[in-house]
Amino acid sequence: MKRKSFSALLSASAIMLLLPLACCKRMGIETETIKEERTIKLSDDRSESMTIGFDLEIPTGGIKDNALENVQECLIGNLFGDGGPDTCGSSSADRDGCDCTVDSDADIKDMIDQHIARLAAEYRRESAELLETLEDTDSELGCLNREFFYTARFGEPFRGLQSCVVETYSYTGGAHGSTARTGLCFSLTDGRRVLENDLFRHGYKETLDKLLRARLESKAKSEGFADSIFNRDIEANGNFYISPEGVNYIYGQYEIGPYSLGIIELDLSWDELEPILAR
Predict the structure, then answer these.
(1) Which of 3, 147, 161, 169 is the residue whose CA sits 20 to 30 A from 197?
(2) Which H or E run contains 40?
(3) Neighbours of 258 (CB within 10 A)
(4) Single pTM value for the model
């Protein structure tokens, strides 16, 4: 089952929409939106293809230059770095250096081109290897179709912090695709990524885990999926984003229940969290 949430997939083989004027002005980080979608054929003599789409809010201003650079580097690392969605700041040690495997000085459009080129090369190489193992290769093979979509959205600033939610979707054959969602929280003062142990005071974990488990039970009961949960003993996983209402924790597919439950977010209000907040 392929992803339907991207607005109408465009049929042209290479389409690029750059929206430099769509600048989202807030009291915190300002952004510009870049949208691009491309469909790359496996080869001239085959009908299978790979579709890649981007819908990204890229930081462009609103905070000091050095802070802005830190935010840009962390976001770019999460989108294009080889380290995956936790690149740049998954721990206090690597957050300081923001060890991205990308050139943060490169133009974002160039980086998109480079990323697409890498995916296309991998797609054609892996597909060629698979075709060598199959007997009937004359008809279209659904297992050779691919889809990749990337989104990045900044929320409203609050308490000197602002978050971005990065989502990646991939379909590489099979019954359905896979979605990963990562919350990135930034200090508006220096642009550094704010981690869980920065946001909460020492000894917070037991209280936070209890709050999250209670919120899971109430959410499951109200939304009717209590019988589908296979992990009730959840813990704070460091994957969160903030808003003026509170802190939202993100639990990926299969972390709490079956694929059909999708990604589950648990929201905790600032009032609930006040006793364990570090700031």
Answers:
(1) 169
(2) strand 30-41
(3) 12
(4) 0.83
3-state DSSP assignment of residue 41: strand
Placement of tokens 């797609």 in the chain: 123
Q: Which of 222, 230, 216 is nearest to 268 (CA)?
A: 216
76 CB-near residues (< 8 Å, 6+ apart): 100, 102, 104, 108, 111
